[in-house]
Amino acid sequence: MKLLFDFFPIILFFVSFYQAKFLIDNTFIGSLINPERPEHINATIIATGIAIVASFIQVGYNWFKTRKFERMHLFSLALITVLGTITIIIGNPAFIQWKPTVLNWVFAGAFLLSIFIGEKNLVERMMGSQLDLPDYVWTRLNLSWVAFFLISGAANLYVAFYYNVEAQPDVRMETWVDFKLFGLMGLTIIFVILQAIYLARFIQEEEEEESDTEAQQ
User: Fold this and answer.
1) Kindly report the CA angle at 183 between 180 and 189, in degrees rounded to 5?
2) For residue 212, pLDDT beyond 60
């Protein structure tokens, strides 16, 4: 459920991109759009604007529910607001296309630096209250997140600017929009499943140790 909440702005970006024509024809948004621009540019502008609003809603709802802000949501909001606004003003999708890469690579840097700053890395800080794992496992998990963020950022960059470069601009944009939702979400789901499989044996060992302790008592 949290995964869907984290992807809320991306899901709305996807839906509004493909429903841009309907929004232009049937809502006030049509009066804000330059009809002389290519359809895929207008669709990107509409989707970007809606994603910015969705990001504000995401951050506001999370604060209303928990009375705290998640740093990931705040940084994502800042990025999409800055890069998205530039995209809307000048009509160049490249700026919003850079957003997933910048976001993922900044996270990769943060997780990597956390190994050297403080007593616990970021993964242990987030999950340490729920799991009791050896230090080397926490390090491996943290480094796996670094690798995941680096790969995700590079994949987005490749699809956005280097994949199928001979295709028409609208086709390339649609490919990136599809990847932004299904590709990045798919990578995240696969990574989380692999991480859960890796953690399963340590959780099982911990449960067995607790059972042995109880039996001895």
Assistant:
1) 120
2) no
Helix (H) or strand (E) holding 64: helix 39-66
Print the SS3 string covering 106-171. HHHHHHHHCCCCCCCCHHHHHHCCCCCCCHHHHHHHHHHHHHHHHHHHHHHHHHHHCCCCCCCHHH
Task: Report angle CA 168, 14, 87 to the nearest 5 degrees.
Answer: 65
Q: Which pLDDT tens digit goes with each residue over 30-83?
A: 888 988 899 999 999 999 999 999 999 999 988 888 888 888 888 889 999 999
**Cα–Cα distance measured from residue 113 to residue 116, given in angstroms and rounded to the nearest whole number:** 6
pTM of the model: 0.86
Tokens of residue 50, six digits: 């809606």
* Cα(191)–Cα(194) distance, integer angstroms: 5
- Contact status, residue 139 vs residue 124, Cβ threshold 8 Å: no
Residues 107 and 92 sit within 8 Å (Cβ to Cβ): no
